[in-house]
Amino acid sequence: MNINRRGTLGLLGAAVALPGAAWSQATGDETENHLKEALDAGHAPGLVGLVAHGKELRTIVLGRMAIDGPPMQRDSIFRIASMTKPVTAVATMMLVADGKLKLDEPVERLLAELADRKVLRNLDGPVDDTVPAKRAITVEDLLTFRAGYGLLLVPPDTYPVQKDRQCRARGDGKAAAAAGPAGVEDVSLPHPRA
After folding, report:
1. pLDDT tens profile 58-113
2. Range of 183's domain?
3. Percent helix, strand and coil across the chain, each to the nearest 5
């Protein structure tokens, strides 16, 4: 059995892909079939799924608690790790399905520290050469990791922004950009869709 992290996230995605869908017995059967396919592909030895839509509720219990373990139970206890992002995404999509959030909605009313963002004019330019972002960060941007926070997969000191961040981390030198609430920086890398 080939159990892997990506497959486990795929199982979670299969179990929660229904917000807003019309509920029916066929919908529940389709979900169960998708989960069986993931289980048969070896992504996990077993699972417990819960699909809810309005007052309708369906529990799906498949497989075993371990590769050679006892059968999975509806109340089996699971050890989970690194689930913040998928669980938050599920909760967000439930709010979207309920009409309380929109994917294209700017996040400023919920996360004031992300309002009025400034971005670097050029990645290789000085860290104080910033311009206002062309548009606000949206709920969809956060769900798809397009908020404009950069991950530079290059050697250290390739760009001025890396050097500035290293100085701030060490506490030496004058930082060109102040840190915002909860450590969120006031300067982001150029937004790919800005």
Report:
1. 899 999 999 899 999 999 988 877 788 888 998 999 999 999 999 999 999 999 99
2. 114-136+147-188
3. 35, 15, 50
